[in-house]
Every structure is written in structure tokens, then in C-alpha cells.
Amino acid sequence: MVPDTRPAVPERLRRALEGRGHRFTEQRGAVHRFLSGTGTHPTAEEVFRGVRGELPAISLATVYKNLETLVACGMATKLTYSDGSSRYDGRTDPHHHARCERCGTVRDVPGNLPAEVMAELESCRGFRVTGYRLELTGVCSACA
Ligand code: ZN
Ligand code: MN
After folding, report:
1. Cβ atoms of residues 22 and 69 within 8 Å
2. Is the pLDDT of residue 83 over 80?
3. How close is the Cα of 51 to the center of ligand 1, in Å?
4. Whole-number mean pLDDT of the chain?
5. Which residues have C-beta under 5 Å from ligand 2, the single-atom ion?
């Protein structure tokens, strides 16, 4: 008998998928594994290139759909940009980002806004704040 060397399905992923009426599939597992194993905030194409070695039959359209499913299940975050492009993040806890204006790479930035800054922002009249997104823009060390 050949030993099963496939990584165990993370129970949290299976529960999140099933809670939203989705089945766990090997492809969804591979997309999630790739995303949680990188801090680069990849585009759908980059995820596609990353999982193709493991699953040669997977298509870009499937990767895209699987990413959207993970986002809908709360297992990934989607970062959208005004030029219509999107990147995906395996982290779903609140955190900030820094985006390079030249190469477009996005990295995590530690830290939280001080409570008094949040209180001031939340006092915005005629608007109920449900969240916020903070992105530093600049030039990464590779591009500088
Ligand atoms: Zn750069
Ligand atoms: Mn992030």
C-alpha cells in the first residue's frame, strides 16, 4: 500500500466551505495552501502559476473561482485597486498594507491606528463606519 502523503485537510477550511454550502475539493485546498503559505498578496495569475505544478490540469478560471469562494467563506481577503486589478491575501485578521507604486507588490505592515485616531475617524457625520482600509503607497527597496 502506498502511504498517503497528501497534507491533511485543514479542518477550519473544510468547515468554512461547508458552512457556505461549498464542498472541499483538492483544488480549493491547493489554492488555500498556496495563499496561506505566501506573504506576497498574489494576483489570481500568480496563484495559478503557483498551484499548476501540483495540479497541472487546473485552469486560471478555476483558480479565480476558487479564490472568490475562499473570500466568500472568510478564508481569504481580496484587495481591489482602482485600475481594476486584484490581489489576494491569506490573512483575514485586520492589518495594514504597503504597496509599491512601481512594481505593484504589496506587503503587510504591522501596527494599529491609535484609539484616538479611530475615534476621530468614526465620528464622521452622516456615515456609519463598519471598517477601514489603510494602505501605504511608496517605492519598495527592490525598485528604489
Ligand atoms: Zn517595487
Ligand atoms: Mn496582508
Report:
1. yes
2. yes
3. 24
4. 90
5. 89, 91, 108
Q: Report residue 52 as a C-alpha cell.
A: 499548476
Indicate yes or no: pTM above 0.70.
Answer: yes
pLDDT tens, position by position, 53-62: 999 999 999 9
Quick one: which ligand is closest to 92's CA?
2
| Residue 138 CA to ligand 1 centre (angstroms) | 8
- Alpha-carbon span 1 to 3, nearest angstrom: 6
Q: Position 144: which residue type?
A: A
Surface-to-core class of residue 128, CB atoms within 10 Å of its CB (0-12 exposed, 13-18 middle, 19+ buried): exposed
Q: How far is the CA of 31 from the centre of ligand 1 (A)?
A: 25
State the Cα torsion 94-49-17-41 to the nearest 10°.
0
C-alpha cell at 49: 502559476
**Rounded to the nearest whole angstrom, what is the distance from the C-alpha of residue 1 to the centroid of ligand 2?**
41
> Longest Cα pair distance anywhere in the chain, in angstroms?
67
Cell match 494602505: residue?
Answer: 135
